[in-house]
Amino acid sequence: MPELPEVETIATNLRRGTPNQPPLPGMIVSAGSVLWPRTLATPTIDEFDKLIPGQAVTEISRRGKYLVIQLSRETLLIHLRMSGDLLVLSDETPPAPHDRLIVRFLGGYRLVFNDPRKFGRVWLVTHPGSVLASLGPEPLDEDFTPQRFYCMLQQHHRRLKPLLLDQSFIAGLGNIYTDEALHMAGLHPLQLSQNIAVEQAGRLWVSIRHVLQEGIRRNGASIDWVYRGGDFQNYFRVYQRTGKPCPVCATPVERSVIGQRSSHYCPQCQPPPV
DNA sequence: CACGAGACCTGTTCGC
DNA sequence: TGCGAACAGGTCTCGT
To answer: Model pTM?
Structure first.
């Protein structure tokens, strides 16, 4: 799915609006409608339909890969998982295939959660902490220091790739940005976290923040049939570039499956652990 | 605690 | 051309 930069881009667009869509803050909900029941994690559809009308959107933010839409009384949390997307559309725009949940507003606009694969989830809760509690630190926050990151790595005995994908370890990284960061840091995805030297941890810290910021600057990545407007996909170093030359040393990029996910890396720049 | 397999889903692309 | 396999930005649960 969308990873941190894609969710950040969507949050910014919802907050500020775009040439095609008005800003969400200030809008007042007229009704909710759940088209695919499993999309709504909590509460029940009946309660959702009852609770959401009349609430105003007050604030839009992001935590990890969750979109956080603050309403007058409750908080709407949205996770796009693999194929979810959020659109603000006017009443003139007809419904689309794969629309899963809709929040309608006074004034003729609606927020549409569209999700072909149906993995995405929406929560309407009083306390967002109940859903977000297990998330690790935000990699772009000030209190996420290289020193702290080194300590975190030392506390686990796990392979780097699955560890970085673990949202309770660090929030927001997915398959793309993890592969990109490991390549930039010159670290193999199978490297064990406890064997990382301070200096290597520092390089990984810089790399993680660099690729995330680069992703945000380019409005995220749009790949496969899910186009969200970003163009970071044109700047991938290794992700989905199997067999193509490493941008640093021209060695063909390799792919292997690690922890059920495909990993892309340069065997020259990212030597495998002994 | 760390890890692999399976589940949840649909759509696109690959390979024979 | 056609058809099944492989694959896709994620996360959960279960068994070892």
So the answer is: 0.97
